[in-house]
């Protein structure tokens, strides 16, 4: 469950004092995100760790943690913080090191559904990432024990525990059994 509490720009959000909560900015509205629960954190790390290990071993780019903001839209600003994100080495080199929110969408955004998330909220995030040029979004659903892979709003694949998730042309060589994420 999320609660809108005030209107801000991305720069104001960046300067906001840390109060122990995670925030996202949607069309200028500040959205307070409650802390994730045990299952959410476990699933996020099981997938994020596998992804980061592969990306680092193959020098493919950078895997970002959940608190990393990506500025998807400007005026009014939208800043989303996926549970896990990946940006290719080429894009990292083009942008360089800097403080602040990443300009644009990650190449891959991963959202793990929390008990308080509605499917509508998650679908809105998927659409925002893809509209901002994310190449893929993976939605991990702990309740259904599935991972839905969105390459576009019409190219959608639902993977079950019997399937293998792979990085395709975004993260070459990456794969893991969906069951490993839910193990």
How would you briefly describe this protein structure?
This protein is of the alpha+beta class.
Keywords:
alpha+beta; 3-stranded antiparallel beta sheet
User: Strand tally, please?
Assistant: 14
Strand content range: 25-35%
Poorly predicted residue ranges? none
Average pLDDT, all residues: 94
Spatial extent as radius of gyration = 16 Å
Instruction: Give the termini separation.
Output: 26 Å
What is the number of helical segments per DSSP (H or I, 4+ residues)? 5
Alpha-beta classification: alpha+beta
Shape: globular
Order of helices and strands: EHEEHEEEEHEEHEEEEEH
Tell me about the biggest sheet? Answer: 6 strands, mixed
How are the strands ordered across the major sheet?
A: 4-7-9-10-11-12
| Percentage of residues in helical conformation | 25-40%
């Amino acid at each position: 469950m999320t609660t809108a509490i005030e209107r801000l720009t991305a720069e104001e959000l960046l300067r906001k004092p840390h109060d122990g909560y995670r925030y996202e900015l949607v069309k200028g509205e500040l959205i307070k995100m409650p802390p994730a629960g045990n299952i959410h954190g476990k699933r996020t790390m099981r997938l994020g760790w596998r992804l980061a290990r592969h990306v680092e071993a193959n020098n493919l780019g950078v895997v970002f943690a959940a608190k990393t903001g990506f500025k998807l839209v400007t005026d009014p600003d939208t800043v989303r913080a996926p549970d896990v994100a990946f940006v290719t080495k080429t894009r990292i080199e083009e942008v360089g090191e800097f403080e602040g929110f990443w300009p644009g969408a990650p190449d891959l955004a991963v959202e793990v559904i929390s008990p308080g998330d509605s499917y509508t909220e998650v679908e809105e995030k998927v659409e925002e990432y893809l509209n901002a040029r994310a190449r893929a979004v993976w939605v991990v659903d702990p309740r259904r024990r599935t991972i839905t892979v969105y390459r576009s709003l019409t190219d959608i694949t639902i993977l079950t525990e019997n399937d293998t998730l792979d990085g395709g042309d975004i993260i070459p060589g990456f794969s893991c059994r969906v069951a490993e994420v839910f193990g």
